[in-house]
Design brief:
The chain has 339 residues and is an alpha+beta fold. The protein contains 9 helices and 13 strands. Helices cover 33% and strands 22% of the residues.
Amino acid sequence: MSQRLRDLDESALLRQIFPIFAGLPGSSGVSVPAGDDAAVVAAPSGSVIATTDSMVRGRDWRDDWSSGHDVGWKLVAQNVADVAAMGGVPTGLLVSLMVDPEVEVAWVLDFAAGVAAAAQDAGCPVLGGDLSSAPAGVVVVSITALGDLGGRAPVLRSGARVGDVVAVCGSLGWSGAGLATYAAGLAEPSLSPTSPVADRDLSLLRWYHRVPRPPYEAGPGAAAAGASAMLDISDGLVRDGRRIAAASGVSLELSREALAGQFVGPVAAVLGEAQAWEQVLGGGEEHSLLATFAAGSVPDDERAPWWVIGTCVAPGPEGPTVLLDGIPASARGWDHFHP
């Protein structure tokens, strides 16, 4: 019989979890690790980036689509992407778990392994966190991420200027498209060596929805190159682009040709071109980086390439917004209270 959380006390569960987080990179900056009332972490630049994100079972993931490992990885990814979007590097993660005692211990340990794998990939330690019981059926997971700016000023949403170019690092629409394929009940793709291209594209989209790997390294690189504004795309290109536009007092004019050339193809192969455009413009949970740069200063990094997709222009009568070939873009994007 599977062991459930109600079969253990908190200390016994933590004795199984803590070894999973041992030896992660960045631990040298932690003078007091997990085990006391709080951890103590160095702040080399004198400033600390702090951000937090949560996920709720049945709302942000479904167990028939995502494993505990997937959930842990994704939770780290969306938090570290926020640190990267400020131009920083992560220095530590605080993990909280509110869970129905009937949940199997194996799921919690799988979740912890996913957190550890993503933290290893991001180069930062897990500092501790919190455990709590929850009502029947409820599982809520949360991470607070800390980061360091390396002596640079943070890159805000408010610095874009008319004449800057708009660029993205990472994918667009792939996570939202992966979610759409699950919601539509498409069959799992065949992954044999002779699988058709559409099957491989479907597998890619679903993988990126479950376990995204944002371009963390590109954030500090963009800051060093003089990015004037930046954020991570969590609620859709147009919705998040409007946030830069509103904060900076400019409009972002995007190029349909530039977007079609790089991002639409894999989605169109699975969902068709019309739905592909909806996802590229409005798909959420992407966690790619959207930034503006002075012309000629976009970083040239083959490991994490930036793609120029538009320019910053003076607002028209409609005010600061996002335009697609001169026409206000209508993609809605993700909203937690109106999904």
